[in-house]
Structures are given as structure tokens and as C-alpha cells.
Recover the amino acids of this structure.
């Protein structure tokens, strides 16, 4: 259960940091400047302790993967909940700056992102088995499932 709590806090912190540090105007995580990525990494090092024998290069790579995913999810949420409904996110997300929001809106309303969105909507329709494990994935759920199995075995 401790692993699930740590993974949840870890992914939540990644989400918070990327929202506060990285502007929403980047199309792709690969486009984000290295200094912004380094800022995120240093903040994660400040907030989480890694074992002394940990491969720091792999740890940084994992943080960058989770942060990139969190940024993509956040931009999707902004698009779906605000942009497509003609609303602004400034009350809910006070850290989103007006200039970045306007640039984000312009980017999302060009033909390329709309075509890409349609392509992925069609692709998603083919998925018959949707997963609902959240950002922690299988590893975060495994311990909880084991506890449920033990409780069911005890109950008969």
C-alpha cells in the first residue's frame, strides 16, 4: 500500500510541477527547452529522496516521461473543458497566463491539430478494452488488488 501512496504522490507532484513551470504553448514534450526540464528535475530531487544506489539517469528519464504525459493530459483537459466550450481556465487554473492561453487557443484551432485529433478519435474507437488505472498504472494497483484478494479469501 505504501508503494501506491508514493506513486500517487510522485505522479501528482509531477503534474503540479509541469503545470507551474512549463508553458502550455509547446506542441510536444520534446519541444520544451532543456532548462525548463532541468528546473522540473531539480524540483523533483528537492521533494523526493532517491536511494544512493539508484541510477539517476534512469530516474530522471522516468520523471521526464511522467511529466511529459502529465503536460499532454493537462493540455487535453484544457482543450476539452475550456477551449471547446468557449470558456477560459483562469478561475480554476490561476497559474495559466493570458498570453499563453491565447497562443494555446490559436495553436489548437489550426487545421493540423484538429486533423490529428480526428485521427486519434477514430483510433480510440477501435479500442475495446479501456484501462482505468490512472497515472500509477499496474504497479500502483497491484498491492491494492492483493489486499482485496486476501480480504475475499478470509471472507470465504
Amino acid at each position: 500500500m505504501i508503494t501506491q501512496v508514493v506513486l500517487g504522490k510522485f505522479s501528482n507532484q509531477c503534474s503540479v510541477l509541469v503545470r507551474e513551470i512549463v508553458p502550455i504553448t509547446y506542441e510536444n514534450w520534446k519541444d520544451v527547452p532543456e532548462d525548463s526540464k532541468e528546473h522540473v528535475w531539480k524540483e523533483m530531487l528537492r521533494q523526493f529522496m532517491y536511494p544512493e544506489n539508484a541510477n539517476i539517469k534512469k530516474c530522471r528519464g522516468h520523471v521526464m516521461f511522467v511529466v511529459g504525459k502529465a503536460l499532454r493530459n493537462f493540455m487535453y483537459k484544457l482543450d476539452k473543458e475550456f477551449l471547446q466550450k468557449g470558456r477560459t481556465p483562469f478561475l480554476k487554473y490561476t497559474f495559466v497566463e493570458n498570453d499563453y492561453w491565447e497562443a494555446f487557443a490559436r495553436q489548437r484551432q489550426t487545421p493540423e491539430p484538429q486533423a490529428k485529433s480526428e485521427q486519434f478519435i477514430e483510433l480510440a474507437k477501435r479500442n475495446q478494452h479501456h484501462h482505468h488505472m490512472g497515472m500509477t498504472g499496474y504497479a500502483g494497483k497491484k498491492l491494492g488488488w492483493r489486499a482485496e484478494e486476501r480480504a475475499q479469501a478470509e471472507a470465504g
About this structure: Residues 2-155 form one domain. The chain has one domain: 2-155. The helical segments are 2-21, 34-47, 56-83, 98-108, 111-125, 137-155.
